[in-house]
Amino acid sequence: MRKKHIGFKILTGIIFLILALSSCVPMKKQVYLQTSEDTSKTEYLNKQLIDYKLRPANNLYIKVISLEQDVSDFFNMGLSQSGNVYYDAAIYLNSYSVDDSGFVEMPFLGEIYVKDLTIEEVKVRIQEQVNKYLNKTMVIVKLVNYNVSIVGEVYKPGQYKVYQDKINIFEVLSLAGDLTTFAKRDDIILVRKNEKGSKMYHINLLKDDILESDYYYIMPDDIIYIKPVKGRNFAFNAFPYTLVISSISLMLALIAIFK
After folding, report:
1. Distances (CA, A) of 227 to 179, 185, 213
2. If you write DSSP's letter for every residue of 28-70 in order, what string do you get?
C-alpha cells in the first residue's frame, strides 16, 4: 500500500511538472485586430498618414519625358538608355543620391534642394525648373532603395526592398512570412530614424486601433523587432496531449512493476 501511495505521488508530481513546462500560447494572444466587446466598429480612418520627408542618403529616380526627345535627353544624361532595368544595382546606378546638404544634382538643371520635401513636392519643384526650358513635359520621381528590416519571431527574418510608395505593417510582416506562434504580438518594437538618430516605438497588433495609429504605415529604413513570448523555450504551438498521455502511461507501467 505504501509503494502504491508513493507511486501515485510521483505520478501526480510529474504530471504537474509537465503541465508547468509545457505551457502553450493561448489563441487570444495570437489573433490580430481584436475589437472591444462593446463595439462593432468596421471602418477606420487613418488621420495620421504622413507622407515621407526626404533626407540625406535617400536615392531618387528622376526622369524627364518630352515630345522633343533630343532635347529632353539633356536632362536624363546618365540614365540607362537600354530600356527598363529592374535589378537592384541598376536601380541604384540610375538614381540620384541626396547629399548631406539635402541637394540632388541633375544634368543641365544643377543642384535642387529636396530635403524635408515629399516625393510629390520634389516632382513639382523639378517640373518648375524644366518648364523654363521645355514645354509639354512630364517629370517622373520615385523613391528607390526603400529598405525595411524585420528581425525576431518571424518565419523569414531579413532586410526587404519595397517597390511601392506606401506599405503598412501587415504587408511588411507578410513579406517575412508572418509572425511565428511564439511572437509577442502585443509589444512589437518599431525603430525609426529621426533628426537626432533613432527612436523606439511599441506597437500592439492585437488591438484594432493600430489601423488608426501613426505607425500603421512603415517608413523607409524602419526596423521591426518581434519579441518572443515569455517562456519561449518551453512553449508549444498547442497543448502536448501526446507527451502527457505518454508520460502517464509510462508512470502507470512503472507503478505496476513496483507492485
Report:
1. 10, 8, 20
2. GGT-SSBPPTT--------TT--PPPP-TT-EEEEEEEES-HH
Structure confidence by residue, pLDDT tens digits, 85-106: 556 667 777 889 999 999 999 9
The single-letter code of the amino acid at 165 is: D
Classify residue 194 by its DSSP letter.
E
Cα–Cα distance, 229 to 220 (Å, whole number):
27
Residue 177, pLDDT > 90, answer yes
Q: CB neighbours (10 Å) of residue 23? A: 15
Burial of 155 (0-12, 13-18, 19+ CB in 10 A): exposed
Q: How many residues does the chain have?
A: 259
Q: Please give the radius of gyration of the chain, using alpha carbons only, rounded to the nearest integer.
A: 29
Global pTM value: 0.72
Place of cell 523587432: 225
Average pLDDT, the chain: 80
Q: Which amino acid is at 17?
A: L
Report DSSP state, residue 186.
T
pLDDT at 36: 67
Which amino acid would we find at residue 72? Answer: S
Helix, strand, coil distribution of the chain in percent, nearest 5: 30, 25, 45
Side-by-side strand order, sheet with 96-97? 96-97, 59-66, 137-144
Q: Which three cell numbers stand for residue 133?
A: 526650358
DSSP conformational letter for 98? -
> Within its chain, how far is the Cα of 129 from the centroid?
36
